[in-house]
Each structure stands twice: as C-alpha cells, then as structure tokens.
C-alpha cells in the first residue's frame, strides 16, 4: 500500500466523505493528539477512513518496484539484477506508470534523478527480491539472475514521457496547494 498514486471517483458522495475523514485524520492536531500512535500515516488514514465509514475500496494487486539506475558495487560494477531509485508503480501490464517523485526529492535532486532514469524493476512473483535500504536511494534486488530477465526493464521513451508529465503535475500541485496546507502538514 502506497499513497503516491491514488485514483478516486469523486462523483460518488461516499468517496468524498471518506476523503474528508482521511483529511481530518491527517490534520496536525489530530495526529499529535494520539492518532500517530495508532496508525502509520496517510496510507493508513485512507484505509482507516473507508473502513470506519464502511465504504468499499481497492488496492492495485500489483507489487511496487523502483525506477532509476542499476545498482553499482563499491568497485563501480553494475548489478543487472538490482535497480536503485524512488518507489515506482506499474500498470496492469507491468509497464512503468508512476514514480513517487516526492521520495526522490528527499533522497536526491529530482532533476538529476530524472536525467538518469534508465531502468525499473517490478517483482514478477508474489515473493519479490530483497530491498537494500542501507543506501539512498533504496535499491530493489531481483530474485536471481534468471529473475532479472523478467523483472528489470529499460525505461521506454513513452514511459519516460509519462513520468515527466506526472512530475510536472506533481510540482504544479505541490506549489499550488502548499500555502493552504503548510500549517497542518
């Protein structure tokens, strides 16, 4: 479950109610008043609001991966079975759909990361490989050499264009809404 990409049918009143409840749970005074001790942030407030109001919801049944560059050893050798970068989401066919650009802001410069976007990894099985969180950006390791053929992909021009569009939209929304939320986030 990750909150970097969420789709809502806001024409359904019950969805709007759940979003308002989740927004309330994410207010600073609610979080600091004890909510943070019970849940792990915005991902769970979305889920919790829907559960509390008994409104059906779904999560994409696909594994998240990461997008960026191949992992390099201390000697500079690339590992073709591991990709390092921010969290990435795939579409129903396993193609790169979205990259959590917020995480790339915190890990390193967004423009530098986007310029080096070459590969993504999407676990092909229900038992994905290991995550190396000791370095930043984090790295997702495929299951094995054979698995790399099924899990590590070069980013296509179409996928890079889609990521660029969502990156621009994210930047626009972040600047546009930040002034309204800076006291509550």
TrEMBL record:
The keyword Transmembrane applies. GO terms for molecular function: alpha-1,3-mannosyltransferase activity. It comes from Rhizoclosmatium globosum. This is Uncharacterized protein. Keywords: Glycoprotein, Glycosyltransferase, Membrane, Signal-anchor, Transferase, Transmembrane, Transmembrane helix. It holds the Pfam family Mannosyl_trans3. Belongs to the MNN1/MNT family. It is a single-pass type II membrane protein.
């Amino acid at each position: 479950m990750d909150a970097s990409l969420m789709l809502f049918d806001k024409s359904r009143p019950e969805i709007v109610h759940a979003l308002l409840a989740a927004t309330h749970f994410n207010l600073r005074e609610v979080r600091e008043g004890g909510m943070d001790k019970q849940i792990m942030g915005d991902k769970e407030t979305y889920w919790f609001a829907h559960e509390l109001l008994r409104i059906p919801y779904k999560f994409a049944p696909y594994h998240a991966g990461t997008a960026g560059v191949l992992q390099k050893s201390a000697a500079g050798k690339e590992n073709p079975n591991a990709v390092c970068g921010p969290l990435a989401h795939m579409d129903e066919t396993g193609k790169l759909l979205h990259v959590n650009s917020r995480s790339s802001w915190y890990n390193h410069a967004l423009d530098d990361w986007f310029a080096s976007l070459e590969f993504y990894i999407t676990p092909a099985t229900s038992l994905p490989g290991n995550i190396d969180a000791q370095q930043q950006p984090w790295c997702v390791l495929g299951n094995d050499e054979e698995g790399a053929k099924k899990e590590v992909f070069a980013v296509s021009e179409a996928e890079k264009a889609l990521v660029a569009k969502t990156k621009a939209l994210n930047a626009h929304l972040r600047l546009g809404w930040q002034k309204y939320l800076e006291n509550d986030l």
